[in-house]
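cache lookup: miss for this entity combination. No prior model stored, computing from scratch. Input as submitted by user K.M.:
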Amino acid sequence: MSTIPINPVLPFLRTDRMPTIWCPGCGIGTTVNCFARALLDSGVDLKHLAIVSGIGCTGRVAGYVKLDSFHTTHGRAIPFATGLKLANPKLNVVVYSGDGDLSAIGGNHLIHAARRNIDIKVICVNNLIYAMTGGQTAPTTPGHVITSTHPYGTFDPNFNLPHLVEAAGAVYVARWTTFHVRQIARSMAEVFKKPGFCFIEILSPCPTLYQRRNKMGDGLDTMKFYKEHSKIKNGVSTSEVGLTRNGDIIVGKFVDRDRSDYLTMAHDQFVEALGDRYVDECAAECCEEGI
Amino acid sequence: MATLAPAVEEKKGGERTALITGSEAIAVACQLADVDVITAYPIRPYDTVMQYIAKLVSNGEMDCEYIVAEGEHSQFEIVKHASAVGARVFCGSSGVGWMYAMEALTVTPALRIPMVCMVGNRALDDPGAFGTEHNDALAVRDLGWMLTWVDSGQEALDSTLIAYRVAEDRRIFLPCAISCDGAFLTHSQSLLQIPSQEQVNEFLPRYNRADLLLHPDNPITVAPQANEDWVMEIRRQNYAAMERTYGVIKEAFADFERIFGRSYGNPFFEEYMTDDADVVLMGMGTLSTPVKVAIRQMRKAGKKVGFVRLRWFRPFAAEELAQCLSRFQAVGVIDRDYSFGSPHSGGVVAGEVRNALYPGAGKKPPVLGFICGLGGREVTIPDVEKITESVYQAAEGKRQPLTQWIGLRE
Ligand SMILES: Cc1ncc(C[n+]2csc(CCOP(=O)(O)OP(=O)(O)O)c2C)c(N)n1
Ligand code: SF4
Ligand SMILES: [Mg+2]
């Protein structure tokens, strides 16, 4: 008797919520697949994993994964995740959101969480626009790109996100495209184990609103573009990885360094200031009870 | 001049007829008003306005500075300050986007900035619905914003011009938000009269900030710190400005009629089939469409029902409204909003209508409140019939609940 093999990532998905809202050729689903693979490969404890999303096409991830998840307001995924982590440091907290959500309306939270080295893992699906609302120019949109707010092309400079978060203090920074499925899964598995503020940027096609308007073809054409234009440069200076409309895409793991995370710094400071009088209540109680 | 519209007919003197959406109508009004600075941040349904404006600017049909800000808070801050240096400004948002700008929205009337905004009415989060609800714009009702609700593309266009005229009047200098129901109005097309540039120029003088202009030749401090020494006097000035809006709005509507040849009758509320009505329904925005259809049907069955559509919520023409409502045996107010824990746990408009009726000497019909059409749910003709039934019962002296939820899935 033959059996139909079950997709190994299925247990992580809410199949009752399928089909997803994502368009054919959209890259967000690919990243979720990589995420599920990373969960399998890393053996991370699912009981202590929480996914926090903002609002957007990417933000919908929170509703499709069969894990503890939160669909927060637009831009607020990082403060929400910060609260989760501080209240229950045992949790592995993953922020999964779009470029607009994380770097525009939520941009301030991004740099401050990196500065404090809050122990959260940020997965930023960068389709270079605000997709859900109709493809408007975002802070990540490269110059000379047609968007619904710049019908004749953008002109204001875009953020180089790896550079931004490295400068702000992130301890792990990588970038891949949705063509690099193995590398994405490996990076994700790596950050589950890495303490501190980790940032993975994933360039992802939005054929409906970005590629189409810019005559860049469909999802498959974008995969070919990613394949031809991606240059893996691990450890390269993030100042050199800015994105342009048609230029090369530098991918790889750019930053992997160690520094104390926020809770460790807080703990050390209290010990230094208070000595024996300091009782780490969190370590003593909350974590045991798993609140 | 190139236009956005698929169907355009040129009429005498540069007036045009065009088939456009409510959002396009607002964009066209901004073009005609020759707005100087516009900021945007996408959120449905307001984003359609910003996209039409982006097109006009990119096509060279509109000369203005246009910035896509990084969030609503910056969006509203940028135009606020542009207005302080003498620029005519436009801005807008919807639902939580509008709420996210709340700090800027609070400061704007306090600084006497005549910002004109469009609110594409949308339910507040959670649960993140896109459909229409009025709580977004209503959230600023106590802060010194003028608030108007429109029910057609034509009224959206005309009200935008009127809003500039009133807001930028030196006697007023208060911001004005034009509320358009998400989807029902923002996204539906209708045939509109687009006035000529000459008409608009005659109606709308250039914005002149006069002695309040922030300019090197006129050194002033905007928003200096004041405490209990002056805060009451500052608030009182805002109060006085809002009191003056009644007269200035009337003037503007009269001039509008003279120049554009279109009359809205009473600027503050529209009356529909009220002449011989026993009872009336009330509401704001595009509710008018199903309500008017239902009224026409009910009238065929001999029910003398009318409709009073509130056009201006701030200022609230309390005395005129009380006088109008005293003609009827009962009133049913349909709220596309909620005010949990308010008197009788009713909607915002119902509460205001009762408040308006209370002090007057005239006859006070019973006022029933109905919460209906939340989250963009359609207000259906059977809903309106059910509401009317209850209002009739109240007219006959039968006790009715003061607040009822209509169209709710049980
Ligand atoms: C305060 C607020 N402003 C605006 C919006 C509208 N909005 C929803 S999704 C979105 C943009 C999402 O862009 P991004 O984060 O890049 O996600 P994508 O859809 O591209 O995956 C915006 C502006 C909102 N929900 N809340
Ligand atoms: S609009 Fe773009 S980002 Fe959103 S689901 Fe479609 S392809 Fe994906
Ligand atoms: Mg995006």
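stored under new cache key. The interface with chain A takes residues 40-44, 47, 50-51, 54-55, 58-59, 68, 70-72, 96-97, 100, 125, 128 of chain B (CB under 8 Å).
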